[in-house]
Design goal:
With about 375 residues, the chain is of the alpha/beta class. It has helices spanning about 15, 20-35, 45, 50, 75-90, 105-115, 130-140, 165-180, 200-215, 230-245, 260-270, 285-295, 305-320, 355-360, 365-370, 375-380, and strands spanning about 60-65, 95-100, 120-125, 145-150, 160-165, 190-195, 220-225, 250-255, 300-305, 330-335, 340-345, 345-350. Strand 1 (about 60-65), helix 5 and strand 2 form a beta-alpha-beta unit. The protein is globular, with a radius of gyration of 23 Å. Its main location: other.
Length: about 375
């Protein structure tokens, strides 16, 4: 992902005055619009540098737009971690936050409201990546740099932070295949594949990574794309798969995240499965960790959401200051419009055997949080307590 840095000479404010600064900024932006990108990733941050600085004593507003609440992580982890880190490095920063409840038009309206309210940086996890291109374009026309968070937005965004999503899909596929092989021939029955939302580019990456591992190794009986990552829809899809395949023939279930896994597991319990086949997941939601400890879900993918939110906060602050982000190495990821400088973080598999060495070790959850009520006995058996 390529970007251009427009460099201006430093001018003494005391001698020249604000009119010269405004003129210099206009020339910088005009020059930037006529050039092609470079690999520095600094362009958009520097073009908005003067606009980003608040009046003396005023707050520097950062807009944070998250996509939905069906996935527990956004309200429970992403938002608080982002706000906490931004306040640490920028006490005068003010976060304007909105959640779109999985509605692209609502997110558009929220973004427009934030731009009207004078945000200097827009951080967006898009409901619909393609539709978000209009949000990015509007922000850019207002000289507001954009950070695509978790999902890659369309349009000329400035930076992107996420995980290596194809690798996440491979991890899920490898885990499921290993579990199936423990029971014998992985082609002895059929698996059900429940992918994520067709409007989410991350879902396509998970799907690609999963298929790169499982194709030719297993028999896929039914495969679905799940609108809005809806657990309720995933439950309906699993019901359909059970009817089509027969519960005795289902030996595994690929679910792209923990929410869809919860729906699939609910369907299988409702259908009277004596023993649940291995089920994959992602996001390390608390309920999923509890299901793993209890033997209802085979695995999840633990993504260090706190680290992702911290990187996003540091990126946003650098952009607000008109500086390139240099804390971590970026790689170019093309979103169909341009190459976006991106930080891709790593992820790891969580199973019953390593709950203590992953989410508990990182203080993502404590043992008492996981081992409540009916899960206490399973925690003792699994060595979590």
């Amino acid at each position: 992902m390529k970007a251009i840095a427009c460099h201006t000479r430093r001018i003494s404010l005391g001698l020249i005055g604000s009119l010269v600064i405004a003129t210099g900024l206009f020339a910088c932006n005009k020059d930037q619009g006529s050039q092609s990108g470079s690999s520095s990733g600094a362009s958009t941050a520097s073009s908005a540098s003067a606009a980003a600085k608040p009046a003396e004593g005023g707050a520097l507003k950062i807009g944070l737009l998250l996509p939905e609440t069906k996935t527990a992580r956004y309200e429970a982890a992403d938002k608080p971690f982002f706000v906490e880190r931004l306040k640490q490095i920028c006490p005068k920063c003010e976060v304007l936050y909105q959640n779109a409840d999985q509605k692209a038009d609502k997110q558009q309206a929220q973004a427009e409201s934030m731009l009207t309210n004078g945000v200097k940086v827009l951080v967006i996890d898009p409901v619909d990546a393609k539709a978000a291109g209009a949000i990015v374009a509007k922000a850019k026309s207002a000289n507001v740099p954009v950070l695509a968070y978790e999902r890659l937005a369309g349009g000329p965004a400035d930076y992107h932070v996420s995980f290596d999503n194809e690798r996440v899909g491979r991890l899920q596929g490898e885990s499921l295949l290993a579990a199936l092989k423990k029971g014998g021939d992985p082609k002895r029955g059929k698996i059900v594949v429940i992918n994520g939302s067709p409007t989410d580019p991350n879902a396509a990456s998970f799907k690609k990574g999963m298929h790169s591992v499982l194709d030719g190794q297993v028999n896929i009986g039914q495969e679905y794309d799940t609108p809005d990552w809806s657990p309720d829809q995933a439950q309906k899809e699993m019901d359909q798969a059970i009817t089509a395949i027969g519960k005795k023939n289902i030996i595994g279930v690929y679910c792209a995240n923990d929410g869809t896994a919860s729906g699939a597991i609910a369907a299988m319990k409702g259908a009277g499965f004596a023993d649940l086949p291995p089920v994959t997941g992602q996001d390390a939601e608390l309920a999923a960790i509890q299901r793993i400890v209890a033997g209802q879900q085979y695995m999840t993918v633990y993504k260090a959401i706190k680290k992702e939110a911290i990187v996003a906060a540091e990126m946003a602050y650098a952009m607000a200051e008109g500086k390139p982000y240099t804390e971590q190495k970026t790689v170019p990821i093309n979103n169909g419009t341009k190459d976006i400088p991106s930080v891709l973080l790593d992820a790891e598999v969580v199973t019953k055997e390593n709950v203590k060495d992953t989410v508990i070790k990182d203080n993502f959850y404590t043992a008492p949080q996981i081992c409540t009520g009916t899960f206490a006995a399973a925690c003792k058996t699994a060595g979590v307590l």
